[in-house]
Amino acid sequence: MNEYKCPVPRDQQPTNEFIELSKSKFFSWPKSKKSLILVLIKFWVGTFLLFLFICSGSIYFKTSTLKYILLSFFSSLSIPLLITIKLYLGWNHVFKRLTSERVEYEESGWYDGQVWIKPLVLKEKESLIASIEIKPILKNLIQIFSIVSILVLSGILLFQYNNF
């Protein structure tokens, strides 16, 4: 952006935001769908074990082992769901900044917001980055979010309409 006499501070330029997000340890997980799934499964298993431990103290669940295990199974899906939402929001924010015709930025604080209109060459370059790099990540995150949401909703329905 510097070659276009860009007034936007370096850390608020969409291309630099994309690079920083890509380098981030947390936000680099969805770059590969398999690695993201493995990380989410690890978090799910860890949370499942934690929830098993927490539910084991309940007198109510000592009478129904199946209910105890199923409740831990479905409630532990909340952590992968929250991680997926956080990843999606971060990548979607950068996607919108890259595909936008205008760049909103702050020179020194929230009270002095400015808008800079991107030159056509830069707009095309950033649009290409967004479509090639970020769109597949967002697609994968939406698929994973959908799967986890369906599992969570099926757990809610299972507990709502069945008496064990």
Could you provide a short overview of the structure?
This protein has 164 residues and is mostly helical. It is built from 6 helices and 2 strands; from the N terminus they run αααααββα.
Question: Would you mind describing this structure in some detail?
Answer:
- With 164 residues, the protein is mainly α.
- It has one domain.
- 68% of the residues lie in helices and 6% in strands.
- It has six helices and two strands, in the order αααααββα.
- A two-stranded antiparallel ribbon has the order 1-2.
- Helix 2 crosses helix 4.
- The protein is elongated.
- 20% of the residues are buried.
Secondary-structure topology with pairs:
Layout: H1 14-23, H2 33-55, H3 59-62, H4 65-75, H5 78-99, E1 102-106, E2 113-117, H6 120-161
Antiparallel strand pairs: 1-2
Helix pairs in contact: 1-5, 2-4, 2-5, 4-6, 5-6
Strand content: 5-15%
The termini sit apart by 62 Å
Helix count equals 6
Write down the oligomeric state: single chain
The order of strands across the largest sheet is: 1-2
Q: Evaluate the radius of gyration.
A: 22 Å
* Helix/strand/pairing category: mainly alpha
What features would you highlight for this structure?
mainly alpha, 164 residues, single chain, elongated, two-stranded antiparallel ribbon
